[in-house]
Specification:
- The termini are far apart.
- The longest helix has 23 residues.
- Helix 2 packs across helix 3 and helix 4 packs across helix 5.
- This protein has six helices and two strands, in the order H-H-H-E-E-H-H-H.
Amino acid sequence: MKLLESAENYLETILMVREEKGSVRAIDIVNHLGFSKPSVSVAMKQLETNEYITRDEDGNIFLTAGGEEIASMIYERHKLLTEIFENMGVPHETARRDACKVEHDISEETFECIRKHHNR
């Protein structure tokens, strides 16, 4: 099942915040994405319902195996595409924003070819 781009962004953000801070709470996602608390709350409930995340009684957010797989895939795409764009001379912030757009739409086949080409 193909996830909506917004769900992929939330999962990727959870992974990024976890790598940065060690733990993730909804407020961290609010601060990272600049979205409202209610919007993040609705998204977290949806991700939990679909078993991409779990939450403990203290409000900490954890990726399930399925959520981790999707987040890792999207984050890997983001990092590699950003790097490629920067190597082509695109300013960092523009490269980051453009990678975020492309990472969701590029096919697995094309991304694999990019990865192979880049790792030569």
